[in-house]
Amino acid sequence: MSGSKTDPAAESEHMAGNGLLHRRLFLTRGLTLAGAFGVAGQASAQPAPQPAHPEWMKRQGGGLSGYGRPSKFEEGVKRIAGQPNPIFPSVGSTRTPLEKLNGMITPNGLHFERHHSSVPAIDPAAHRLMIHGLVRAPLAWDMSALMRYPMTSVIRFIECSGNSGAAKRSVPQTSVGQIHGLVSCSEWTGIKLSHLLDETGLLDGASWIIAEGAEAASMVRSIPLETALDDVIVALYQNGERIRPEQGYPMRLLVPGCEGSVNVKWVHRIKVVSAPGDSRDETGQYTDLLPGGRALQYTLLMDVKSVITHPSVGMKLSQSGLYEVSGLAWSGHGAIRRVEVTADGGKSWADAELAGPVLPKCLTRFRIPWAWTGGPATLASRATDDRGNVQPTHEVAIARYGEAGAYHYNGIQPWAVSQAGEVANVRL
Amino acid sequence: MSAFRFALAAGLLLASGCATEMQPDTRPTPKLGQTMTEAELAFWDSSILVDGSNLPAGSGSSAQGLVVYAQKCAACHGVTGAETDTRLTPLVGGIGSLATAQPVRTLGSYWPHATIIFDYIRRAMPYNAPKSLSNDEAYALTAYLLRANGIIEETLVLDRTTLPMVKMPNRDGFVRSAESAK
After folding, report:
1. Confidence of residue B13 (pLDDT cuts 50, 70, 90)
2. Taking CB atoms and an 8 Å cutoff, what residues of chain B touch A206?
3. Taking CB atoms and an 8 Å cutoff, what residues of chain B touch A334?
4. How far is the C-alpha of B44 from the C-alpha of B37, rounded, in Å?
5. Which of residues 24-83 of B touch A (CB under 8 A)?
C-alpha cells in the first residue's frame, strides 16, 4: 500500500503509464469527471435552451406501490439471456448485466440464473429439509420450524464455474456481462448448516454430504463435511427478502467461494456419507478434463478474478479527460487484498482503491481515476487475494486447465480503447 | 452443543488449514427437527453411491432398453444416441478420445461408474416426465446405453448386483482436486 503517510495529492499524481492517477485523487482533489461511459456517441455542442421547469416539477406523479420497480427509463437493464436449450428452453442461463450496475450488490431480479431443468413452483408449506445418512438421528424440518432458528447473514458472491468461458475460447465483442456475468453478489440470510448437523449428530466415517434439490431434475452435488461444518448456510433470504424462485425458493445452500452448482437450489435433502457421490454433475459435467486425458474432480473453489466494468467492451468514451475506471474483484479463497490496473497493456500497473467493505468470498468494487489522453490505451485489472493468489494471464490460465476445459477460467481481461474512444475486447 | 461435533469439526478444520470461520457458533437452537420414519427414509433416500449401495430391486436388459429408448428418449437424444447435430450431450461414442485434441465426453467415454447412469436416469429423465420410469425401465435403459457404447455384452441383465460390477473405460480417469482430496 502506498500513500498512507502523506496527502496523496502531494505525491506524484501519475501512478502508472498512460494516465492512471493516484487512487485517492478524486477524494483529495474533488476533480470532476470528463464524462460518463456510454454506448452512444459524443453529444454535439448545441445552444443552451431557455431554463424551464420540467413537466414532473409542475404536476403530481405516481402514487404508492406494493412492490417497487425500477424507473421506466431503466427498463433496458435486464438479465442477458444465453442460448436456451433448443428442445427445453427452461434449461440454460442468464447473466448479470455487470456493465449497467455499480457497487458490490446484485439486485435480486438481476442475479444470474443457471437451471439444469427448470424453476419449480414450490409451496413452502409442503417443503421440508431432511438430513439423514451417517447421523445419529435422521431429522426433517418444515419452514415454520426453521424460521425459529438463529439466523446468520453474510454477503457472498456466487459464480458459475463456466463463467468467462467465452473469454477463454475466443475474444468476444459482446458486453462484459455477456462474457463475465455468471457471477452475482447478495446478502444471504439463513441457518448455519452446522447447527442442523449438530442436532442430527454425526456418526463415525462421516466425511461428505450429498445435497439434493427439489426441482424436476433433483440435482445433487457433494460437499466436503469440513466445508459444510464451516460456513455453509441454508439460505432463506436474499438481500432482505425471501429468495426468488429462480434462486431456490424457499431455500438453497450457500457454499461460500465454491462453484455455483454446489450452492444447491431448492435444497430439500442432505445425506451424510463417507465418500462423495460422483453424481452425473460431478463426473460427466462439472469436471476439468486436462491435456492427457485425466480429469480433475471437485474443483470447488473459485479462483481469484477481476474485470473492469467501466469502461468495458462496447462502450464509447465521449472525449479525452478524467474518467473513473472501476470494476469487480473476487476470490473463493478469501478476501481481495489488492487490485492493480494498467492503462498501457501491462507495462505499468497502479493500485486501485478498494471500496469497502472488503469481505471474504465477496465481490469487491475497485476504482481508480484515469486521465485519458485521447490516444490508444489498453486497460486491464489484476487481482490478488489475502492468500497470495494472483490473477493469472490468459496464457497461464489456459495452461492450468488446458484448451478443452470449459470451467474455472480466470485470466486477466484486457479492454483496448481506440483513439475514437471505442472500447473493444483484446488479448494482451 | 455436541462435544462430538466440535471435536470432529476442530479436527477437520485443523487438518484443512483453510477454514474461514474458526469461531464456534454457540448460540442456542430450538432443536425442532422431526424424526424421519423408516417409510420416509425408504422413499426419499434415492442416493446411489459409487459402490452400488442403495440400488433398488428390479432388472433390465439392453433389448428391453432399446424399446424404452425408442419410445421415451430418442426424440431428444437421437435415434442412436451418437448424433452430434444436437446441443444435447451425445450419449454414445468417444471412447479413447479423452487424451486427444478433440475429446468427446459421453457417458460411455467419460463417466467413471455405471451406477451414475442409473442414478441420473431414474431421478432426472425423461426430461418431460422425470421420475416416471420404473426401476426395471431404468435398469433396461442403462443396459441399452452401455451396450450401445460397447461396454457390456448384449446378454447381460443389469440389476443391483451386476450393475456395480460393470467396469467403465474411464474408471480411473478422475483425480480429486487438492482442496477436496483429503
Report:
1. very low
2. 8
3. 20
4. 11
5. 25, 27-36, 40-41, 44-47, 49-50, 76
Q: Identify the closest residue of chain B to A130 by CA–CA distance.
A: B36
Q: From CA B23, how far away is CA B97, in angstroms rounded?
A: 48
Of A150, A283, A299, which is closest to B116 when you measure between CB atoms? Answer: A283
Q: Give the pLDDT confidence of B49-75 residue by residue, as tens digits.
A: 989 999 999 999 999 999 999 999 998
* B9 and A198 Cβ atoms separated by less than 8 Å: no
pLDDT of residue A39: 54
Task: Decide: A158 and A260 in contact? Cβ < 8 Å.
Answer: yes
**Residue A12, all three cell numbers:** 506524484
pLDDT (tens digit per residue) in A415-427: 999 999 999 999 9
ipTM of this predicted structure: 0.89
Which residues are bridge partners to A308 per DSSP? Answer: A327
Residues of A in contact with B175 (CB under 8 A): 294-297
So what's the pLDDT on residue A10?
40
In total, the C-beta contacts within 8 angstroms joining chain A to chain B are: 201
Q: What dotted CATH number matches B48-165?
A: 1.10.760.10
Is residue B14 a contact partner of residue B22, using CB atoms and an 8 Å limit?
Answer: no
- Tell me: pLDDT of B7 over 80: no
CB contact set of A180 (below 8 Å; sequence gap of 6+): A98, A163, A164, A167, A307, A413
Contact A47, A390 (CB under 8 A): no
Question: In terms of pLDDT, which residue wins out, B102 or A128?
Answer: A128
pLDDT lower than 50: segments of chain A: 1-11, 40-42
Q: Which domains does chain A carry?
A: 115-296 (3.90.420.10), 305-425 (2.60.40.650)
In this prediction the pTM is 0.92
Q: Are A214 and A127 in contact (CB under 8 A)?
A: yes
Q: How many residues are given for chain A?
A: 428
**Considering only CB atoms, which chain B residues are within 8 Å of A299?**
177, 179-180
Distance CA A330, CA A410 (A): 10
Q: What are the chain A neighbours of B21 within 8 Å (beta carbons)?
A: 230-231
A280 touches chain B (CB under 8 A): yes
Q: Look-up: residue for cell 443391483?
A: B160
Residue A325, classed as helix, strand or coil, is strand
Task: Kindly determine whether residue A199 and residue B33, on different chains, have CB atoms separated by under 8 Å.
Answer: yes
Give pLDDT, residue A26.
61
* CA of B39 vs chain A CAs: smallest distance (Å): 12
Residue A340 CB contacts under 8 Å (≥ 6 apart), including other chains: A349, A350, A351, A352, A381, A382, A384
The C-alpha cell at A284 is: 460427466
Residues of chain B with CATH 1.10.760.10: 48-165
pLDDT of residue B82: 80
Cα separation, A183 vs A157, whole angstroms: 7
Q: What share of chain A is helix, strand, coil (3-state, %, to 5)?
A: 15, 30, 50
Cell triple for residue A247? Answer: 434462486
Contact A267, A214 (CB under 8 A): yes
Going by C-alpha positions, the residue among B46, B36, B37 that lies closest to residue A141 is B36
